[in-house]
Amino acid sequence: MQKGFTVRVWDSKQLPADWFKRQQADLKATLDLQDKVQRIIKIVRTKGDEGLLGSALEFDKVSLTSQTLKVTPDEIKEAYSKVTKKQIAAIQFMKERVSVFQKQLLSQTEVRAFNEGIMVQTVLRPIESVGCYVPGGQAAYPSTVVMTALPAKIAGVPRTVVCSPSDSNGAVNPLVLVAADICGVDEVYKVGGAQAIAALAYGTETIKPVRKIVGPGSKYVTMAKVLASTDVAIDMPAGPSEVLILADERADARLIAADMISQAEHGTDSVAALITTSQKLAKEVQDNLSKLIDSTPRVEKVADSLSKYGFIIVCDGLEEAIALTNQFAAEHLEVMTANAQKVAEKLVAGLILIGPYSPVALSDYASGTNHVLPTGGFAQAFSGLSAIDFMRRVSIAECSKAGLERVKAVVKVLTDMENLPNHYKAVEARFEK
What we know:
The protein is of the alpha/beta class.
């Protein structure tokens, strides 16, 4: 078995008071991170391209110029020659699935109501420009392009920009470029990290600023988004990825172990956890994890992640399990219980996956749902990314003379209550000859 590998099993009554706090750094580390990111933002904001390119050289070890910063049509054409037809077809499949879901979502969001001469409606207008951050480095994430840029395009955003770090030769992963082309992205830039967020938020000589920034990233990217959010809109704070599985004694321990392992390969700070009502299932999952770990691809990363942030909690009953699950408010929540649909109605999460045939991988790649989701408990207040996040809701009201006359007495009372007499005078003026 992988040396030092273990996944902790806790009885719910033994949990420390702060158990559901995520893997937060201590206050000093957080302030140090904030200080570092603020310096990067200041450099890019004050020095433009020079600051951006200098930061790319310092942090990503890549030498770029203002002329090579933007991906060219020839580079996109070359990217197609480096990927397979199956890969292109898979990206197109994902695009189609996401498109269907997002278009249906938008079709149900405009509202119109009539009430005694007053017509009120809500219409949607696209944001003028959006920046999509797509992580790079050790892996390629063309799916993140689809999940961020495509809903923006479906919403009608006229300018959609992607920033993704390049390799040491100044090239963005070809799968990311192909996905960007398939999704109709307008501009792609070869930068990542906090410096990319700063460029999107405040602009440089080469990169014009955007109205909103979306997409997951490292702790530096997340901090940069939070700091820039005073000046530009962002989607949500999105930290390390998470899956929480809620299961009873009927669940398949082998599938749960496989899903926890799949989550753990995201990185050594990913959370993969089980909350169950069955001591027997907890033991079987622990045994399956031990059995599977040595034959697992990327075993060191997976084992490290599960050892640090994997856990199993055994509860006395389903109601307690539901309460703990909602306290955690996971990014991804799998429900493997009897009457799973009914149980799901009581749950809080970024995304809920029901039954044994709905793994996280389904939602990441093939269901049409979006995998840019709130983490770190933010699912208690935030929703996953969708086309609606790229729209502004505008309310429109139109009233007839008769309709205004019906409500003017109430307006008089309310304006008097709030000592705003001129508000009522503006109403009254419409009935004077």
